[in-house]
Amino acid sequence: MKKLAIFDLDGTLLNTIKDLGDAVNYALDRNGFHTHSVASYPYFVGNGVRRLIERSLPEDARKSSTTVNTMLKDFKQFYNEHNTDRTEPYDGIPELLQQLQDNGVQLAVASNKYQQATLKIINTFFPNIDWVAIVGQQEDIPIKPDPSIIFMILAQARISKQDTIYIGDSGIDMETARRACIDSVGVTWGFRPVKELKEYHANVIINRPQDILPIIENGIPL
Question: For residue 108, what are the domain limits?
């Protein structure tokens, strides 16, 4: 039985794309750039907020650190206030987390979203979960797929790699788990296609949150 389940945030626990898109579009409009449809944003996210901003900009503009920094400031000003307006848990996630907690499984979040927003969003939507760690992007920690964030959580939980599973919706998540030498579960309800999860060697791919339960209980199926 796995003793620690580490979850990605965006596209895994919560559908955050509308609030992310609204915040980037606010910054784009404020700085005189064309905005994007919300449907475009699943392909922009995953590598932290700076890369999200860069991907939203025209190619010539993204090369200017001054422009990117101004956009970042405007994005965070808006997102810090509105990051729970249109965000919602995926169906079955609150029930899954509660059942795992009731079964004695430790729970953690490993996200490339900056720490302030990660803490607010997780604590807003899952106030009854006793997380062993909630770790977002911080200045002194490399972002995923660097495995440092996973090693921090393992140290806090005092759980071994073989007793840990990482759950996410992107190739970045699968690569993070691979580099950390822990089992990975790719989920199909998030922002990235199944093809990407396969290309990045997810140990198993699931279509429903409840499918995590037998994996926690019995390990990755052979």
Answer: 4-15+87-218
